[in-house]
Amino acid sequence: MKTILIVDDEPKLTEVISSYLKKEGFQTAEAENGKRALELINSLSVDLVVLDLMLPDMNGEEVCKIIRQESDVPVLMLTAKVKEEDRINGLYVGADDYMVKPFSPRELVMRIKTVLRRTEGSQLLAEKISYNNGQLVIDAGEQEVFVHDKKVSLTPNEYKTLLVFARHPKRPFSREELVEKVLGYDFEGSTRTIDQHVKNLRQKIEKDPKAPQYIQTVFGVGYKFAGGSNV
After folding, report:
1. Whereabouts does the entry annotate DNA binding, in residue ranges (predicted)?
2. How far apart are CA 79 and CA 206, in angstroms?
3. Given strand 48-52, what is the order of strands in its sheet?
4. Is residue 135 located within the same domain as residue 202?
5. CA distance 152 to 206
6. Torsion sign (Cα): 16, 19, 23, 25
7. What is the domain extent for residue 108?
8. Local structure of 58: helix, strand or coil
9. What is the structure's pLDDT at 19?
């Protein structure tokens, strides 16, 4: 049974979300502020975090940044901000999905299930594969990525994006294809979401993100993975 941590300072909303999740077979834990949320993430086995941006002690983006320093647990943000740039910023700090308030609890449950599906079971054909004489290593068994022998922290969607590229080296992918493979065919957001995931990946795995050797732009198409493997 998977555990969903609900981080929100509105007790009635937390109660409603928890009720819907329990009906679908999930366990829930609740935190009314960022500090308590971080304590529970460190003490419980949490499978996904539903994180409100407006918390009494710190904003949700700050909480998400701290989570990402220690964990790759999926994060779904709840926000009253409707501007695309605000949502893109949430993805930049490590969120895997977002919903704008007010929202349907049934849709929230569906989105949680979708995030969990797409962040599970991601595998390479090889258990471990390295690129450029070990400069980049993807350990599919442990779902970890290393750059120059140092582990890098990727969000579930960043890891999934990297795996899609690694499974199909040299093949150009359109943004629409990547949205479907990484975020799911039912994702209704902008294809700019993929651009943000690629930007984040380049910052984390490339020596020079402005002149990437792994994830390269294919003008007029999208992106391709150009790393040479030596399994």
Report:
1. 128-227
2. 31
3. 27-31, 3-7, 48-52, 75-79, 97-100
4. yes
5. 11
6. positive
7. 3-118
8. coil
9. 97
* CB-CB contact of 37 with 60 (8 Å): no
pLDDT of residue 93: 74
Specify the pLDDT at position 165. Answer: 86
In this prediction, residue 166 carries a pLDDT of 82
Per the structure, the count of domains in the chain is 2
> Could you tell me which residues are beta bridge partners of residue 216?
224
pLDDT, block means (10 residues), the chain with 231 residues = 93 96 95 95 90 92 86 85 68 80 91 79 57 84 87 89 82 86 71 88 93 92 78 48
Q: Residue 73 belongs to a domain with what CATH number?
A: 3.40.50.2300
DSSP per residue, 182-229: II-TT--S-THHHHHHHHHHHHHH-SSTTS-SSEEEETTTEEEE-PPB
Q: Are residues 109 and 30 part of one domain?
A: yes
Q: How far is CA 9 from CA 34, 36, 102, 113, in A?
A: 10, 11, 15, 23
Q: Distances from the Cα of 71 to the Cαs of 7, 21, 66, in angstroms?
A: 16, 23, 9
Residue with tokens 């969903």: 4
Same domain as 156, residue 53: no
